[in-house]
Amino acid sequence: MDPIQKDISSSTHVPHGFPQQRMIVLPRPLVNQALAHHLPMPLIPSDVGYFPKAANHYVDRPSGSPQTIFILCVSGQGWLKITGRHFDILPGQLVVISPNEAHCYGSGPKCAWTIYWCHAAGRAAGHFVADLRRRDFLPVFDVAGYLDLVPLFEQITDVLGRGYRMAQLQLAAMTLAHLLAQVVDSARSPLTSRRHQDMEAVIAYMRQRQHTRIAVSELARLSNLSVSHFMALFKQTTGYAPLDYFIRLKMRRAAELLDTTARPLKQIAADVGFDDPLYFSRVFRRVYHAAPSEYRLTPKG
User: Fold this and answer.
1) Which of 128, 209, 261, 273 has a beta carbon 3.0–4.6 Å from 180's, enabling a disulfide?
2) Per-domain boundaries in the chain
3) What would the pLDDT profile of 123-166 be if each residue is shown by its tens digit?
4) Fold of 3-188
5) Domain 193-297's class?
């Protein structure tokens, strides 16, 4: 038996009621009413809470929850059992549980976790989960800058703690949307964090060489991968083929030079590695849907 699981199995199970905890549960008719008529998007926090040093925490839902569950561990250690698998949960990791997904989670008496958590109702919650799981069907994610999420969890709790006026529900819903968008932007599966770090290193290498040309084989060697494996992982990570992404970096740099300098187009083309200004203009138009000269004259700001 896992030592964490053994630690808690010999202790009293506690679902909530921890010293200095915060927990708000909205009446379900109010949640349904808000989703039906008053929210700018189909998303609302139906339950939200903060459990500090939650020793012997234990929740078992054999039939799952009607809502999507998000749990952020900020200190200590916990565990999750879901789909027949066991996960140890560490600080900086986010647990994401889909509606009606059987699960069990908790924390032992030693090194008990401190968590912020939220149950999200509405169709939009599923869209966020789909974005998170589009690369790996795992329920645990490493979140870069996870402490930046804490004020958002706290704002949701504070807003709902002041009452249930529709303006407060809307603010709580939009704060939750902000939180989840930030999670989608920064979350990575623990099994793929190294992969994403490798791809970030490749992108940094591309940025440093926007003035020249790069071969895919060169980028693959940088990642210690075969060309075919590298191309598949890069597209999985960024949504673009490597050279397409590199071209877009070049065109973004070119657009910045068009906006901030008076350099002639021939010079800007050379600055981003194009010997032929006409070819540069065609590529720029393909990305920005405007010729460089037209783009330069377009009002901005």
Assistant:
1) 128
2) 3-188, 193-297
3) 999 888 888 776 556 799 888 888 999 999 999 999 999 998 99
4) Jelly Rolls (2.60.120)
5) mainly alpha
For helices 277-288 and 242-260, the axis angle rounded to 10 degrees is: 100
Enclosing H/E stretch for 256 = helix 242-260
Give the closest residue to 75 by CA, choosing from 150, 158, 140, 155. 150
- Which pair of tokens denotes residue 251? 């065109």
Beta strand spans in the chain (E): 22-25, 44-51, 58-61, 68-75, 78-82, 85-89, 93-97, 103-106, 114-121, 140-143, 187-188
Amino acid at 295: Y
Q: Confirm if 190 and 177 have CB atoms less than 8 A apart.
A: no
The arithmetic mean of pLDDT across residues 236-254, rounded, is 91
**Exposed / middle / buried, residue 67 (Cβ in 10 Å: 0-12, 13-18, 19+):** buried
Exposed e or buried b for every residue in 90-116, given b needs 16+ CB within 10 A? eebbbbbbbbebebebbbbeeebbbbb
Q: Which pLDDT tens digit goes with each residue over 79-95?
A: 999 988 999 999 999 99
